[in-house]
Amino acid sequence: MIRKIEEMDFYELLNMPLDASPKDIENAYLLAVATYHREGLASYGGLGDVDRRLMLDKVEEAFQTLRDPEKKKAYDPLVLPGHPEFQQRAYFRRSTSRLEIEDASEEERLWDKIKAVLSPPRHRGDGHGHRKNGDEWERERLPQDFYYYGDYLKKVREKRGLSREDIAERCGISPARLESLEEESFPSLSHGEELLEGLKRYAKCLGLDSEKGRGSPFSDRFTE
Amino acid sequence: MSEYSKHPKAIWAIGGGKGGTGKTFLSANLAIALSVERGDIVAVDADLGGPNLHTLLGVRENGQDLGDFVRNEVTRLEDIALPTSFPGLRLIRGSENTLFLANLNHYRKLKLIRQIKSLPTSGVVIDLGTGSAYNTLDLFMTASPGVLVVTPEPTAIENAYLFLKSCALRVLKAYARYFGIRDFDQKMSQWLEYPSATLRKFMEILSAGEGSAGQVLTAALNNFKVYLVVNKARDRKDVHLGRSIVDVVRKYFLIDMDLLGTVPQDERVNWSLKKFSPFIFEHPESEVSRAIQSMAERLSLESPLIKPEERPSSQA
Questions:
Q1: How far apart are CA A183 and CA A185, in angstroms?
Q2: Which residue of B has its CA nearest to A43?
Q3: Regarding predicted confidence, which is higher, A83 or A10?
Q4: Is B212 within 8 Å of chain A by CB?
Q5: pLDDT band for position A88 (50/70/90)?
Q6: Which of A190, B85, B230, B256 is deepest in the core (most CB within 10 A)?
Q7: Which of B202, B234, B247, B302 has the highest number of chain A CBs within 10 A, making it the mutation to test binding with A?
Q8: CB B12 within 8 A of CB B124
């Protein structure tokens, strides 16, 4: 069933994601006004006056709501069910003390993959893994609910005083892609597998690779 | 038989209601850019009124053309594909015979479409004529995707919407007939009496009354993929125009439109025409050429070339 224009939510109207910044909201509003304004070229011949005015009214209402943080805060939960992409941003739940799979398909075997990347077998004779130097030690000190999530890698990078450009130059991952990995931005990374590979590569660049443990391209170490 | 003959290929049709928007210019230059990008491209001049793609590609010699194929003087479309001075690009000339349109009846049009689809090549660029005649619309809808060209002028935009509306109705009609939706033609005729009524409104009414059939028709529209090119853009406002048109089309025509690119105005285009030399060849570093190259790259990426060894038939 096609919804009427009046039933579209404000984000659909302005073609924006729920996490749009205030500047994005303003730009989207200006573009929408330019599109549906009486003098605008874009709607000429495609829309009648009644539809055009209705759209402009809705656009104005959307902008007045979304520009106001309080109104936006009250409005967002109302439209959240219509935006499944914002209800779950990752395959894994972070809030618990251990990694849990949420909605990850069996075929992808993501649990196995992430375990291989993030929880490497400990070295023999290493007891409980309480090594006090190198990246192994660092891993032990990681809060259990972080693992190698994008935001954790970001934290490591920032603690080391490295910019995305630094990483990009040394590891051959573009700054834009690094940002996507740090934000775990799924739209620009098509599948979970691609995200995992990207995170793995990024972690390796930071010297957090499970296989090598040490020999990071960056001699400085991250400490919590 | 060529390695491409039995496999799905990319077909891009360049259309748009109004004349003078640069469809042929874009077709010629895009065809060259695509031939560089992926090789073995055939450009088809399907401007049924006044073909001149050959002029823009610098092909001066006469040969057999689409008219000969339509009149059954040539059996295979591939046989009238002429070489051009660009490696990897061949041209099927349009017919200058005034009887060409009269000869292109339903059966022959289907034959033309079928043979375009089976041309042994990596991709086909079809240059369409002005107007919203059924033959033009059907060739546009043969493509995947069609590329709609507009200029920042009210007349061009108005004609582009009319073109899209005609395409949408043709899609709906075909699906309605296939799914046996009763009284569709009558409902459509009633709706057409109100020129200001949007396609969205029509679909809302149809969906409410027809249930799942309405959903099928909506899905058919949603699956109709069209790219937009804004040509002869002069300023930043014209650049934004493309995004605005895409918004109107997505919301009110329910067609899956995306902005392929914006080509800036360049006075040197006329000079290249006078020199019978494609612009992209004359000025490869210009903004116009870069915009076209970037479009070719995107179109090519979205229709990946299937290498013979990757095909199931070659593994058998």
A1: 5
A2: B248
A3: A10
A4: no
A5: very low
A6: B230
A7: B247
A8: yes
- Contact call for residues B226 and B277 (beta carbons, < 8 A): no
Q: Are B207 and A2 an interchain contact pair (Cβ–Cβ within 8 Å)?
A: yes
Question: Tokens for B22?
Answer: 């640069």
Class of domain A104-205: mainly alpha
Residues 6+ apart with CB under 8 A from B45: B51, B52, B53, B54, B65, B66, B91, B92, B93, B94, B127
Architecture of domain A5-86: Orthogonal Bundle (1.10)
Nearest Cβ partner for A4 among B160, B204, B240: B204
Residue A138 to chain B, least CA–CA distance (Å): 42
Q: What would the mean pLDDT of B146-153 be, rounded to a whole number?
A: 95
The residue of chain B nearest to residue A13, with distances taken between CA atoms, is B251
Helix A49-66 to helix A22-36 angle (10° resolution) is: 170
User: What are the structural domain ranges in chain A?
Assistant: 5-86, 104-205
Q: Closest CB to A48: pick one of B196, B237, B248.
A: B196
Dist. CA A23–CA A213, nearest whole Å: 42
User: Could you tell me the fold of the domain covering B10-144+266-308?
Assistant: Rossmann fold (3.40.50)
Among A57-61, A129-133, A140-144, where is mean pLDDT lowest? A140-144
The closest alpha carbon to B224, from B301, B144, B296, belongs to B144
Average pLDDT over residues A77-95: 61
- A48: closest chain B residue by CA: B196
Q: What is the pLDDT of residue A130?
A: 39
Average pLDDT, chain A: 68
Global confidence as pTM: 0.71
Contact at 8 Å (CB) between A67 and A21? no
* Partner residue facing B252 (CB), from A32, A34, A46: A46
pLDDT tens for residues B111-130? 889 999 989 899 999 999 88
Residue A110 in contact with residue A101, Cβ under 8 Å? yes
